[in-house]
Amino acid sequence: MSSIENKDGANLKAELIADFQTSQAVLNGKSALPVHQLRSEAMKSFDKLGFPTIRHEEWKYSNVSNLVKQTFDFHTKTDFNQTDLEKIPLPHLTGNVLYFINGVYNAELSQIATPESKLQVLPFSVALAQQPELIEGYFGKYANYETDAFTALNTALSNDGVVVKVADNKVVEEPIILRFIADARTANVGSQPRNLIVVGQNSQVKIAEAYRTVGDEAAFVNTVTEIIVGESAMVDYYKVQNESDKSYHIGTTQVYQKGRSYFYAATATLNGGFVRNNLNVVLDGEHIESHLYGLYVPNGKQHVDNHTLVDHQKPNCESNELYKGILMDKSTGVFNGKIFVREDAQKTNAYQNCRNVVTSDEATMNTKPQLEIWADDVKCSHGTTTGQLNDEAIFYMQSRGIPKKEAIRLQLLAFAQDVVTQIKIDSIREYIEELILEKLEAAR
Amino acid sequence: MLTISNLHARIEEKEILRGINLEIKPGEVHAIMGPNGSGKSTLASVLAGREDYEVTEGSVTFNGKDLLDLAPEKRAAEGIFLAFQYPVEIPGVTTINFLKTALNEIRKYNGQEPLDAAQFLKRMKEKAKLVKIDDALLKRSLNEGFSGGEKKRNEIFQMAMLEPTLGLLDETDSGLDIDALRIVAEGVNQLRDEKRSFVVVTHYQRLLDYIVPDFVHVLYKGRIVKSGTKELALELEEKGYDWIKNEVDALEVA
């Protein structure tokens, strides 16, 4: 490994590299397996890339310098249990509910409802240690560890998460809900969940990832989810973030869609000190549909950055993207939406829209649509708006007897509805609605 | 019921109302007419509490209360309703939910229990008939994609639902064809009774064929320069506003 330069990030980087060397030492001769070879490659890549700075185009508005100055314990023992869980309810959860505490699967808290004939669920750690052949064809094949430092880091060091496989021609009725809880009650904690979701052809499934912090210390969550959507399969994917002001969340969801498949994503960021979500979708087949929705409601000094990439590689596909933000106080937001339409991808329809309401003079939103189109017979559009509350609408409501605060709340709720109503797991949608209400209430 | 004394109001540095005096008693309908820019809509807006305007002088009392001291929502709860010249579209909020919230806020202010779902629906069905407004329209986002006529009918429907004691109609006739105008006017007429009063702001006399006023006032340069009965409106229709302008301007020069 190359020497560590004395610059921002040296602490965390050195810590992580040492961590990797320790993990290598206990592989007991398995290091020659392809999976471990790949992890080694990823570590080399991380070492070379280092943590990004704001000089890096993709990180221009999201500065990780505060993150990389700190240290985090990636192996904190936690006694987080049912009683603790009851304090952070997510009501009416049914179906397959899996808990990960500091990134580690907790079987006691979890429940699996769907029979194995339809759905195979196992902890990533088990797959890695005992059945690497299960993940070999997929793991690290989609999420790019060569260019993205955080993905490289996760690929090299992730020690748990979930592997979900849906067999062909199955409709999984029960949702799969993954709850990631960072237990920062005693120390700065780090976790690197890694999820692999492989959906067989002509199958249907709904998956949600819900992130939450407990405790007042700092938490660093570096998560990567790879989703492979088989031919004619339908996948709904929701990501819900309700993390603490001292948390850093960096996540990549890498989606690979085959022909005639349908992928529907909604990302709702309710809370989090520093949040960066990358959602990358590759449409590698014809007649694919991709829908990407996002909602973020930062307040205080929260920072939320959504980067999306929709990569149209084949003809006759459609993608549609709508991100909405409500920015309060001194919060900052970033939306960077890339759409690629490759030379082959004729007859592509690709739409992108990002709309924001800024309720304070001190909040900032940076938006950047980026369309790169190499095909000539396509329909693409994009638009971004960032505005204030509509005063005339507020006066209109007041003139009907609705108090001003309530009028503002109604207007913002209505603004968020376009995204919230896209979420088809009732418990998750209601949870999000509840959190938005809470947040707008606090803004009074 | 409503007493306006020497009311002055301005927007930014421009004085628009320059001493309005007007007394409205229960059950009366007052028409406010006048050329463009005379301050008609400003008067309606100031009464409803629009923040853009600053009242610099004078007073308005409504049922003994200092109206200018109340927030717009409290004025509404006290019984004032402004039918907007340009009703606002509010995406994501259905007319039904909007009105349920509004109605129950007003009831709360007046110490009444909220209406339950059944009572609310009953009232809604009843009032929707008044202005021949379609149920389906009420389930849609408030005014979003409504035609001009539908928006104006929705204003009168809302007024019927909220049962104010003073209705301010701000150029409700603008942009309406004759059929829509009739429907809107009929809706208003059915709401007329001995306790409820109206201020009808309009540029043209046509609306007053259907909503027959007790008094007609002509506003010019921020003052009421002439008052009369419905015949005054007919005279204005025939002769236009110039003769009044000339009279007033001549006095100013003198």
TrEMBL record, chain A:
What InterPro entries would the database entry show? Fe-S_cluster_assembly_SufBD (IPR055346), SUF_FeS_clus_asmbl_SufBD_core (IPR000825), SUF_FeS_clus_asmbl_SufBD_sf (IPR037284), SUF_FeS_clus_asmbl_SufD (IPR011542), SufBD_N (IPR045595)
What is the top-level taxon of the source organism?
Bacteria
Residue intervals of the SUF system FeS cluster assembly SufBD N-terminal domain: 13-176
Protein name, UniProt field: Fe-S cluster assembly protein SufD
| Provenance organism | Emticicia aquatilis
Q: Which family does it belong to?
A: Belongs to the iron-sulfur cluster assembly SufBD family.
Give the GO biological process terms.
iron-sulfur cluster assembly
Residue ranges occupied by any SUF system FeS cluster assembly SufBD core domain in the UniProt entry: 186-415
TrEMBL record, chain B:
Question: What Gene3D superfamilies would the database entry show?
Answer: P-loop containing nucleotide triphosphate hydrolases
Q: Which domain of life is it from?
A: Bacteria
Molecular function (GO) terms for this protein are: ATP binding; ATP hydrolysis activity
What do the Gene Ontology cellular component annotations say?
Answer: cytoplasm
Output the InterPro entries linked to this UniProt entry: AAA+_ATPase, ABC_transporter-like_ATP-bd, FeS-cluster_ATPase_SufC, P-loop_NTPase
Q: Does the keyword tRNA processing apply?
A: no
User: Which PANTHER family does the annotation name?
Assistant: ABC TRANSPORTER I FAMILY MEMBER 6, CHLOROPLASTIC (PTHR43204)
Any idea what this protein is called? Answer: ABC transporter ATP-binding protein
Q: Which organism is it from?
A: Emticicia aquatilis
